[in-house]
Amino acid sequence: MNEPLDIVFSALADPTRRTILAMLLEDDMAVTDVAEPFEMSLAAISKHLVILTKAGLISQEKRGRVKWCKLEPDALRSASVWMQGFGQFEPVNLDAFERFLEIEIPNAEET
Amino acid sequence: MNEPLDIVFSALADPTRRTILAMLLEDDMAVTDVAEPFEMSLAAISKHLVILTKAGLISQEKRGRVKWCKLEPDALRSASVWMQGFGQFEPVNLDAFERFLEIEIPNAEET
DNA sequence: TGAACAATCAACCAAAAGGTTGAATATGCG
DNA sequence: CGCATATTCAACCTTTTGGTTGATTGTTCA
């Protein structure tokens, strides 16, 4: 698994990692705070953060004891460009957005 | 690994499968013809096609002996829209976006 | 200094992913 | 019918993934 697209897509394939990305949408966070809401160990979250960092989806900066995690949304661009190569749809398509909402939201509760 | 986005992103994470999708961009293809340029066995390609089908990225229709594979770009749309959400630096409505992600950000205070 | 905290490392484990080969199941056709 | 073709199934193997626990490394601060 060496190509950038492999790394980005497989990073996005895990729901824990997507949740972390969504959390970082709100604000930068320390590793411990990222881990806090999850039921898995800190070490497991630390590994997820390494994977997200290698994919370029986040960056990590250590200040003192604390390592801050920051979303890097630009990394999604290559994957997004690849998908737009399939070109049958607009990159931001509100109709599709709404259809997606209607279809997927009912499942959101059954985590 | 049950949720739609898990399945779509992990289907996209494999370079063989992305190549297959690109091939199908040109035209529908029979399983044997999809497999021909690859160095792996037909059975391996058949498994990849099952994964792409379960992700909704292709459909397969059997006519006679031949099973035709057809690109279904609508499944890419959901993933593309998901990614576009991260490109917008100030999400218009974060709550709606989180629902859109079809996840619930775990919150230890409530659980 | 030394205790508490932040984060990673190392070793390990179970399950899933991705491949193989050989047999099986349809289907088409001379 | 009988054989070739198209595809999948079943069993197996190796590597990767995602998790665990306990030890370890830095850092802060009373």
Write structural notes for this entry.
2 copies of one chain form a homodimer. Chain A has 111 residues and is an alpha+beta fold. Chain A has one domain (4-109): Winged helix-like DNA-binding domain superfamily/Winged helix DNA-binding domain (Arc Repressor Mutant, subunit A, Orthogonal Bundle), CATH 1.10.10.10. Helix content of chain A is 53%, strand content 13%. Chain A contains 6 helices and 3 strands, in the order ααβααββαα. Chain A has helices spanning 4-12, 15-26, 31-35, 42-54, 76-84, 94-104, and strands spanning 29-30, 58-63, 66-71. Chain A has a 3-stranded antiparallel β-sheet with strand order 1-3-2. In chain A, helix 1 (4-12) packs antiparallel against helix 4 (42-54) and helix 1 packs across helix 5. Chain A is globular, with a radius of gyration of 16 Å. Mean pLDDT of chain A is 79; it is low at 88-111. Chain B binds a DNA duplex (30 and 30 nucleotides) through helix 4.
* Ends apart, CA distance between termini of chain A: 29 Å
Strand adjacency order, main sheet of chain A: 1-3-2
* Overall pLDDT of chain A: 79
- Which structural class do you get from the secondary structure elements of chain A? alpha+beta
Report the biggest beta sheet of chain A as strand number plus sense, adding barrel if it closes: 3 strands, antiparallel
Please identify the oligomeric state: homodimer
> For this structure, what is the CATH homologous superfamily of chain A?
Winged helix-like DNA-binding domain superfamily/Winged helix DNA-binding domain
| Poorly predicted tracts of residues of chain A | 88-111
Report the strand count of chain A. Answer: 3
Kindly report the CATH topology of chain A.
Arc Repressor Mutant, subunit A
